[in-house]
Model the fold of this input.
Amino acid sequence: MSILRDVKRTLMPIYSGLKHVFLKPYTIKWPYERVPNLSDEGYRFDPKTGIGYPGNKGRHLLYMEKCTGCGSCDLTCQNIAEAITMTYGFDVVIILDENCYEAFKGSKPEIVKALDVILSSFSAEPSNIQYNSLSSFFWTLTGVKQVTKVDGGYEIKLSLEPIFDVRAVEVLYQKIYPAVERLKATGWELRKLEVTTESTSVELSKQDFTINILIRKIDMGYKHNRRSLFPSIDYGRCVMCGLCVDACPFQALEMTSEFELSAISRRELIYTPTMLAKRPEEFNITGVPPELNVIERMRMVFRRIIW
Ligand code: SF4
Ligand code: SF4
Done:
């Protein structure tokens, strides 16, 4: 009897293994495949039932047109992960005095270089600006939205999305100050620095030239949110609990099925309101992993058809 029992015990795992050879696999080759039949619906608060509507708890979607800037989501998160920070939108304007503007139109290298340094501070890539003085109607200055004549000079507005931060001084330290330090190394002098929570103004001069950089709080035009105050979310901290969604009295926050949020720097995990307001892109399944052999490739294509 004991021999029979031992044989049975030996054969059972083999039988179990063989049986699974013919079953549909539960592993998927991400990112070439997605979990089949996963609903695209995100977790959201259902005001009718007063409870959360079940759905995926991926990154949030912010409806800026509904958000009043009340800060309930921030308050709720404070005892959980402190992932939400209420932030204002800021605009950056560069003001060149008449001398500076004329020198810039004449492609004077030190002025072009100075503007390049300032513009580069907003992007990882060099802005590589050029100004073609022969065709003065055509700006080829990367990053410029409009140029307006103002008292004593010209105002250059950058075509940036609003920069979201808690205070103007944060924008100064993170974006402008590195540029100021680089300019000081090339002979520019920091003549004035005025800092308030609403705006920050920096004045630089060199010989007869003066450049002003102004960071100012903007009104994004939402009547119900005059302060243009919106939540930013740090996904390095967020635990995807969804309580901020429950706490929002205006259903301005939802969650989505976008869960692939990995980044190579801590800073990239901080989603500004404009990033949160973008709907996740549809996942496009294309290609097959290069390491698969012919049979595996065929199986993968077949799985895509039947899922
Ligand atoms: S889902 Fe994230 S942001 Fe919202 S309350 Fe939970 S931890 Fe905070
Ligand atoms: S998302 Fe909702 S809770 Fe958060 S600030 Fe906007 S309206 Fe208030």
Notes: Residues 141 and 305 are 49 Å apart (CA to CA). The chain is about 30% helix and 25% strand. Residues 67-73, 231, 247-248, 250, 252-253 surround iron/sulfur cluster (ligand 2) (CB under 6 Å). The chain has a mean pLDDT of 83.
